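Hey,
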Amino acid sequence: MPMPSWPSSKSFTRRAVVAATAAAGSAAFARDAAAGQACPLGPAPHQKGPRVFLGYDQEELDAAYDQSFYAPLAGQILKRLVARSDDTRARLGGPRRAVYGPTEIEGLDIYRTARPNAPIFVFIHGGAWLRGSAKEYGFAAELFTKAGAHYVAPDFIAVDKAGGDLTVMADQVRRAIAWTYKNAASFGGDTRRFFIGGHSSGGHLCGVALVTDWTTYGLPADAITAGLCMSGMYDMRGPRLSKRGNYVKFTDAMEAAMSSQRHLDLLRAPITVTYGTDETPEFQRQSRDFAAAVKAAGKPVELVEAVSYNHFEMAESLGNPYGPNGRAALAMMKLG
C-alpha cells in the first residue's frame, strides 16, 4: 500500500499559520506566512513519532481527520452556506416540517417541487458527527426543486448527546429515511425514484444507510434507487485511532457495524462517490478505497475526483448544477 500523502514539517507548520491567519485576520501573519517565515504563535516543527495507522504517527493521523489543516477558510464557507440557506427559503418559501420519531430532534424539512409524482433526494448533513442541522443545508433545495425533485433534510442527534454512540445517529437517520419513503405520497413523492446522499460525517451515515437491510424498517429491500456518498468515511479504523476517538466511544462492535465498506454484501443500490483533491489525505483515501471495494465486489459505482476542491467547497457544490456534487446528483437522478 502506498504511503499516504502528508505535508512536510514546513508545510504542516505553514498550514497551521494560515489557519491562524484566517481566524485572526492579521495582515502581518499573512505576510509572514507568504514569506515562509516562522510565526512565534505557530507550532514547533513536526517531529515524526511512532506509526499508529498506515504511515501516520498520532499527530499526523489526527490532522488527517481534521479539515481545518486543509481548509483554513472553512468558517467563511460554512457561514455562506447558512446565508444561502436563508436566501433559498426566502425565494422558495419555508419547508414543510415533519416528525419522524419521538425525541425533539427527530424532525425533517421537506422542500417540495412543483412537479407531480416527483423523485425524492434525502440529504444527510455532516459536521464531524457533532454539528450541523437540516436548516443550515437548505441551500441545496433550490437545485433539486427547480430540477423537479423533492429535497428532504433530516435532523438527528449529535454523537456527544448520544453518549458517543454512532449507532444511535445511524438509527435515527435510517428511521428518517424510512419515514420519508412511507409518507412520500403525502408530499407527491415517487418511491420508485428514491435517492439518498450525504456529505462528510453525513457521507459516512449515507454509506451505513446504503448497506441497511431495509426490510427490518418495513421497506422493500431495494427501496433506495441510488446513493451519493460525498467526502465521507467508510471504514472506521482510522477515525477510531484518531482524535475523533476521544468523543466517539468506539467499541469493536461499533467499529464493525459502522464501517459500510465491510458490509458490501448488503449493498443493493448503485452509488456515486465524490471527493476533492484539496481534502485531507485520509478523506481522499477513504473515498478511493470505498469505490475500489464496491467495484471489486462487482457492484456499480462511479468515482468522481473534483480537482482543487476542499472539503467545504465540496459541500457547497451540491447546490450548483455545474459543481461536482450538484452535477453528480442530477446525473444520478437522471434530471437535466
